[in-house]
């Protein structure tokens, strides 16, 4: 086992497929071996040819020697017979040739030892000596005469035809055998080197081409695998790319759109506005920014939950998209704030018509959570044809117009104008001034007495706010109440009036003045404060007063317009706590009869608009009817705006319980009240 493992290891090393780069070493070695073997083979073949040529010459000379020996014998016999002309010359030439050929044969440098032995050593007379003796004897025989000549010739004929010929043939034979052996050797070398070359080629195939092929195969396999892997990677990459571009699109969409409604978001709206600006700056395109704010949307959220609120927002988004053109951009930029960008609107009429369609469509009741819900939409819009309207500016303008629409009573559309902006700026300035006035305690109460119609006794005083302006003097509430309401500062003014009113009452009581009550005006905001009752109780107790000393005047409009549950709860709580609550400005709105019956109100204050026309049959009838209604509900009736004695008399006759008006006294600073009180009580006492 171990052995076979080792063999495999060695084979692997020999094949060396792991390091194909080192194969060139083997190429060099292989080339060297092949060069050597081919060179040797070439040398062997050249040698074979040369040897064959040389040997052929030697053999031919040897054969010629044998032939010459016979010719010499023949020529000798011709000379004897003397019928051959020139035979002696030819004999001489043959002898010369025989002798030089013999010299050439025996003096060859590559003469083998065996041949040397044959020529010079073997036998009684070696071939060389034999040949030379033969030539010598032929010479002697040619010159001899008679018997000697006969004897010599017989000897020479015997030698020539037997011994010399045999010796020459034997030498030639030996030489031929040697030559054959030499050529066989050279051929063997040639064959061996050829075989060696073939072997090297085989080894090259095994040790170079096979490993090279194997490594090429492996490289191809690897390449194919890599290509396959690359193709798969490419597919994955392409897929990832598609996913990425989808994700990017989704991200861009998410970055520019509102997730709930799918409309453009604030950022996108802003970009559209900024992007479209250059067209407008050329002055050839008008743009309209329309801002839409939902009315009563908070109520949907509060009563039906956020899910229903979301549904409502989606419904509104769909409505806006439906009502606008394809090229218009609709967006949601806040909780219930939407924006429409109209590029190149055909006319102002078209914008107004669109605004109307939107307010009407949004006002349609929607079925949410099995409940029919109604909201509204207030719209502000601005039209820019000017060259310098920036995105910010247009949004601010639309916002101002929207603000105005809301202020004017919601559910309507309002266009921006410079006059509107000016008015708003003035109002804003007023807001700031009111804020400063609050900080500097510039609000003070004026009081206006209220007296019973029956005996003229003092019923109480209404506390009316005045702003003691450092430059403008006493500023009436008509100037600042609405602004304070808008700026949501009215509850602070109410609180100041209540506190200062109660201070006043406490002072009056301390001064021994019998003032049964003070009336204070409570704005809707004040009434929505759930802690109002507790706070008033504290204020009253702090001054050793009773809740019944404070009458809270509630505007009829508070109950109708706001349909305000919080305010209704406060009114109930105030009543329960012992405070008196009266309905102010009664007759100016649509008094909800259900509220009148539901709430434990202590009285109603007839508005001046009802009181002023008296005496007049129809006005008288209305007041009589209202007095009857109040009586039946156990409520007192106060008439406001009684300015003259006859007016006073008429109102008394119609059954009102209390009167308030210039005929009794105009509102006055609290410090004047004591004087007025003593004067008035003295007057009443005198009259009685
Ligand atoms: P109101 O509550 O209806 O107050 C009665 C208004 O009628 C007072 O105007 C009073 O001066 C005026 N008045 C009384 N008798 C006569 C009369 O014989 N003839 C005429 N022409 N007017 C008469 P004033 O003080 O200017 O207040 C206006 C309104 O401002 C008040 O109407 C009330 O709604 C609001 N107001 C005044 N003070 C406050 C306050 O402290 N808080 C709140 N929320 N509103 C206040
Ligand atoms: Ca009042
Ligand atoms: Ca009033």
Essential attributes:
single chain, 688 residues, alpha/beta, eight-stranded mixed beta barrel, five-stranded mixed sheet, 23 helices, 17 strands, rod-shaped, binds ligand C2E, binds calcium ion
Give a written overview of the molecule.
The chain is of the alpha/beta class. 65% of the residues lie in helices and 14% in strands. It has an 8-stranded mixed β-barrel, surrounded by 5 helices. A 5-stranded mixed sheet has the order 2-3-1-6-7, with helices on both faces. One calcium ion (CA) binds next to strand 13. Residues 462, 521, 553, 584 line the site of one calcium ion.
What topology emerges from the helices and strands here?
Blueprint: H1 2-15, H2 23-81, H3 87-106, H4 113-120, H5 127-143, H6 146-256, H7 266-281, E1 287-295, H8 297-304, H9 306-323, E2 329-332, E3 337-343, H10 348-363, E4 366-368, E5 371-373, E6 376-384, H11 391-407, E7 413-415, H12 418-439, E8 443-452, E9 458-469, E10 473-475, H13 477-486, H14 490-510, E11 518-522, H15 524-527, H16 532-542, E12 550-555, H17 556-561, H18 565-577, E13 580-586, H19 593-598, E14 603-606, H20 608-611, H21 617-632, E15 636-640, H22 645-653, E16 658-660, E17 668-669, H23 670-687
Parallel strand pairs: 6-7, 9-11, 11-12, 12-13, 13-14, 14-15, 15-16
Antiparallel strand pairs: 1-3, 1-6, 2-3, 4-5, 8-9, 8-16, 8-17, 9-10
Helix pairs in contact: 2-3, 2-6, 3-5, 5-6, 8-9, 9-10, 12-13
The protein binds ligand C2E and calcium ion (2 copies).
The site of one calcium ion (CA) has 4 residues, from loops.
